[in-house]
Every structure is written in structure tokens, then in C-alpha cells.
Known about the structure:
Elements: E1 7-11, H1 16-27, E2 31-36, H2 39-51, E3 56-60, H3 66-80, E4 85-88, H4 103-131, E5 134-139, H5 152-172, E6 177-184, H6 190-198, H7 200-209, H8 218-229, E7 240-243
Parallel strand pairs: 1-2, 1-4, 2-3, 4-5, 5-6, 6-7
Pfam family, one: adh_short_C2
GO molecular function: oxidoreductase activity, acting on the CH-OH group of donors, NAD or NADP as acceptor; quinone binding
Keywords: Oxidoreductase
Amino acid sequence: MILKGEHLFVTGGAAGIGEAIVLGGVKEGAKISFVDIDDAKANALVEKLISEGHQVQYQKADVSKFETFKAGYDKLVSAFGPVTVAVSNAGRNSYADAVEYAEEEWNDFFALDLKSSWYLAKLCLPDMRKKKYGSIVNISSIHGRMSRPNFFPYSAAKGGIIGLSRNLALDEGKYGIRVNSVSPGTTATPLLKSYMEKFPDEKAHALLVAPNARFGSPEEIANVILFTLSKDASFISGADLMVDGALHARYA
């Protein structure tokens, strides 16, 4: 129950790592608010958890657009009170050629994968500053530190997440607020599974280069995030925690 008494807010909480954070968070004693754009998955998750006696609520919100994001956030806070711990998880992949990539694609992608983490901080920091307490985790990726060909938009955004988290940790420490990033490696989310089913050669190669010959699970990533949010990690701030089964330790 390391999050007992906390109000945990999660973006992209209906599936994948976000869903694992929500499921893990209720087990650790938090009341949870989350936003997503998939009503069906989100409502099913909320109904399941409420039936089990947990405090969970959801609002549909596009976190890449501030006013839409704020409207959903404000409704959730009005019901459960100020957010004390938060995770910026919403995002997607982007594979591109630097010449062919359109400016509109760049703007849309970065609004979701980078700017939304700033939006989350903009929304939850005022209350955290008043309480002189809070913890934020932004989800980056192994691609924020090392990458592969044709991932330049994704790698740039995830590198930005690490830098944003580091500087927020410096700026907000005086208020008793911690900010960190977590960088997953290859993780068996529904999105990755569907991709690997379409490209079995990619799956075989990914397993071949994985030092422990497997992918991580969303639950394994969520466990690190929940710990980092908690008081058990009270002196961890400004860090980027690599959760990748030692994949980053490979030279090639």
C-alpha cells in the first residue's frame, strides 16, 4: 500500500503501460483519475475496478490540446481533490524519413509525445506547490538515449522528456516536489504485440538482441513507476530510470 492516501492521475490509462499503472495503483492504495481517448476500454476498466471497491474515475480528453486536457483534468480534480502523484504516459510511435516528414505530422506528434508532459505539469504543479508535496513521472523510452534508423521524431521527443523531467526536478525541488522519467525498453503492450504479429522477423530479431531473451511486461514497467511515485523513493528526483532488461547495455 505504498500509495495509500494519494490521488494518482494518469494520462493514457486505458491500455498498455497506462492500464498497468491504474491496476497497480489501486492495489497500492491510491484513488485514481485517468484520461484517455478510448471510451470503450476506459469505461470497461472503471466499471471493473469500481465493482471491486476501488476509487477510480475517467474523463475522455485529448492531452495534446491544452484546453481539452484541462477540462477533463478539472472535472476529475473537482470529484477527488488535488492530484498528489501523476504520470504522463500517453503517446504513440512515429517512424519517418527526415526529408519526407511533413511539418503538420511533426507538430501533431510532438503535441502528444512531448508537449502533453508539460501540460500535465502545468495543471498539477500549482496544487503540489501549495501543499509542498508531489511526485511526477514522465514516460520516456530507451529511444531517448539510443535508437535505430528512421525513429528520429520518436527519439527526439523521448530525449526531450528526459530533459524536461530533469529541469522540472531542479525547479520544483524547493517545493518538495520530485520529478523523474522512466525509460522502458521493448515492452509487450497490445500495440507491440500486434506489430510483432505482422512482422515476425522483427520479433525474432528483437528477442535475439534482448539480453534476457524476452520482452518486458507492462506490469514490470508499472511497478517501477509506482515505486518512483511513492515516499519509498523520497530521494530520487531528476533521474531517468532505465527499465529495459539490460538492452541499453549492448554495444550493437
